[in-house]
Design brief:
Elements lengths: L13 E7 L4 E7 L5 E5 L5 H10 L3 E6 L5 H4 L2 H8 L2 E4 L14 E3 L5 E4 L2 E7 L8 E5 L2 E5 L2 E2 L2 E2 L9 H12 L6 E4 L9 E2 H7 L8 H10 L4
Parallel strand pairs: 3-4, 4-5, 5-6, 10-13
Antiparallel strand pairs: 1-2, 2-3, 7-8, 8-9, 9-10, 11-12, 13-14
The structure holds zinc ion.
Length: 224
């Protein structure tokens, strides 16, 4: 883990958050306002609707960024690739699960930047919900998938989940600047987005002082 995950971040893309599907999933369209190059985070539901928004904004989708490969985050990857030719960016530990989608794959490597036109985001490997969970950090905000929710965090009792790794991942996110805006993978909270500072003060999982406390809270709650 790097001491400062924000050092030298590229300029942030514009971000459009859209709630899709039946499980309150959030999808994001990230784009460069100069080149109109776009990336779609976790295309799973309502790909048609996402692409209508892409068209309305005059964008060209070149990338799909995958936070993790649970079905409710990747079910639409094949359709998106077929319609746009997008390259699928995914952690190598989970790449096998999207190989069948047909598109070219690129590795999401911890600490490495992914260019979106002249803007970019940085992949942060944040394991615990899955074996290759990845957050995408930009200058001022972060897409957190099913690692951090508004008021919650992802479950660790699915295959590949690990409560100790989740604790480490959340500690890492808490070291980000407190004004960093959080875009979670599901709309489970009181608000659609939050900030690292607000979550640090109010999220019961982030308020745990020790791993033992965290594990006890995690085992009491079951969601996502
Ligand atoms: Zn998940």
């Amino acid at each position: 883990m790097t001491a400062d995950d924000t050092a030298g971040l590229p300029a942030a893309p514009e971000v459009v958050q859209i709630e899709v599907g039946l499980l309150q999933n959030f999808c994001e369209i990230l784009y460069c306002p100069d080149t109109r190059v776009a990336a779609i985070v976790d295309p799973a539901w309502e790909v048609d609707r996402l692409l209508r928004e892409v068209e309305r904004l005059g964008l060209k989708v070149e990338l799909a960024l995958i936070t993790h490969t649970h079905e409710d985050h990747i079910e639409g990857v094949g359709e998106l690739v077929a319609k746009t030719g997008a390259t699928v960016v995914v952690n190598p530990r989970e790449a096998e699960r999207v190989r069948g989608a047909g598109g070219p794959l690129a590795d999401a490597i911890d600490g490495r930047d992914v260019a979106i036109g002249r803007r970019g985001v940085r992949a942060l490997e944040t394991r615990g919900h899955t074996v290759g969970g990845t957050c995408y950090l930009a200058d001022g905000w972060i897409v957190t998938g099913d690692v951090l929710f508004v008021g919650g965090c992802g479950r660790t009792d699915f295959a590949g989940g690990n409560t100790a790794e989740m604790w480490q991942s959340l500690q890492r996110l808490m070291r980000l600047p407190e004004e960093t805006r959080v875009y979670p993978g599901h709309n489970y909270g009181e608000t659609a987005t939050s900030t690292i500072g607000h979550e640090t003060r109010s999220n019961p999982f982030l308020r745990c002082a020790t791993f033992e406390d965290f594990r006890a809270v995690r085992e009491r709650k079951r969601k996502a």
